[in-house]
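Morning run. Coffee first, then this:
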Amino acid sequence: MITTDQLLTTTAETTVASINNTESHSSEKPNFGPLSGKDVRSNRGEFRRIRVPPHRLTPLKRDWLKIYSPIVEHLKLQVRVNPKTRMVEIRTCDETEDVGSIQKAADFVRAYCLGFSAEDSLALLRMDDLFLDSFEVKDVKTLTGDHLARAIGRLAGKDGKTKYTIENATKTRIVLADSKIHVLGTFQNIKIAKNAISSLIMGSPPGKIYANLKIVASRMKGRF
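And here it is:
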């Protein structure tokens, strides 16, 4: 017959043994090996679709070799244009070395579809600190009719002079697509360009913007 004292002693010994086993297992750190791109692709392939606006289909056909070559030769991805859905389809394959390269390719094609040239969009593949920011004139100030048209005219300037001045001073690329504005560059440069664009939308004269951009350009040269 098992007495109460024996039962308590047996239970305590079992509890202590289980705690010791748990501590010994928890003290052992898991060892995870490096994950390669092939291991990720074995589970599932990455796939991206980028819609092409109607007004960019003809330039896409003209510059297709400039877009196709870096994606296939350097990033080792597969790409095609689906004419029915008007989309550029990108996917990984067995030759793909970097899993994150498909996102770079998607950003590259998206920048081209927004209106940037193939050479400017290609910088997204070569540099890691470039970004693409988009906003509308109405995000800065609610304008309609002729007031909106005049604001867009102030942004472009005569023969695009104002836009080129902002691009050269801030080392960015700007696309004016109706009331939408797309800016390509580094984070700090995009911020400076957006401040200049916002001031023009609010009604500041271009001469004042030029003076501010000269100060900014001199500061940027002093940093380097």
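The chain has two domains: 42-126, 131-223. Good start to the day.
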